[in-house]
Amino acid sequence: MTTVPRSVLFVGAFPRPAGLDRYASGDLALRLESRGWTTRVTSSRPGRLARPWNMLIETWRARHQYAVACVDVFSGPAFLGAEAACAVLRRLGKPYTLILTCPSHYLLTEMRSMRTDLVLLPNPLDVARYAFHERRPLLRHLVWLRAFHETYNPELAVEVLGRIRKQYDDVRLIMIGPDKGDGSLQKTRRTAKKLGIDEAVTFPGAVPKLDVPNHLSRGDIFLNTTNCDNTPVSVMEAMACGLPVVSTNVGGIPYLVEDGESALLTPPADAEAMSNAVVRLMHEPILARRLARNGRQRVEAFDWSVVLPRWERLLESVTPGFGAHWDHEP
């Protein structure tokens, strides 16, 4: 049976009820379809055992319906399922690309010692969904958008607010994101209450992806408090909306933004430094506007209009008989 040309199988985790566009590779699959590609995805099955097994079955069952596979994994047991799927692909003689779900210059630099053929393909953003507007004084609404997990240190955000409200008692904070169940949300709530600022902090929980721009547009300054990071989409979304960003200087953050030009960076777990940076933006509106403009310009390089054609060139370059050339840009 002849394999369908310009066809790709995406192997990864796409659990329901979320739609495909909620996942980086799922969104990529949908956009490739709009450009004439035939795509399949596996697996949407729940459970850590059922999902890898379904990946294997679909990789074999659909073997005549795709020319190339894209294996998209990023943590833990998923690597075992991905390796098994790659073994099936090798048996079938199918070319595949094993990718990182949050590629960045940071990861490229850190992993170069392991491989020399790494390709930088950043997680894209549909920039047009994020209306840009410059904030005008007074800047009083802080926004935090992440999952409540100790990795992202959400407690730091309320500590920062507590310090700021000693000078400006009208500053408020909204903390958006799901509870990952490690106690971080409860700890953050307790800290807010202990500092006497619980009425100034709002916890709406997780919000649908399409509603993120609306929530960000109501804020004035974005806080990123994480202890380690790669290239967080939440920071990119804030920059797209025109929020000046104050972030910890960890991991891939300094690869994404430049301190003093597209964001203000502070040491991790340093409430004093971060609160001082926020107050500086409140006092220096010209700086805040410059950061916002430069931030928007920076994330435009991550737009789908830039990244999708690169994905197509890569997939075409590994598709048998297609004859396309991949320029292997850094």
Fold and architecture overview:
The protein is an alpha/beta fold. The protein folds into 2 domains: 7-124 and 303-318, Rossmann fold; 129-301, 3-Layer(aba) Sandwich (Rossmann fold), CATH 3.40.50. 39% of the residues lie in helices and 14% in strands. The chain is built from 12 helices and 10 strands. It has helices spanning 24-34, 50-61, 78-92, 105-111, 155-164, 184-194, 212-217, 233-241, 253-256, 271-283, 285-299, 304-318; strands spanning 7-11, 38-42, 68-73, 96-100, 141-145, 172-176, 201-205, 221-224, 245-248, 264-266. Strands 7-6-5-8-9-10 form a 6-stranded parallel sheet, with helices on both faces. Strand 9, helix 9 and strand 10 form a beta-alpha-beta unit. Helix 5 packs across helix 10 (271-283) and helix 8 (233-241) crosses helix 11 (285-299). The longest helix has 15 residues, at 78-92. It is elongated.
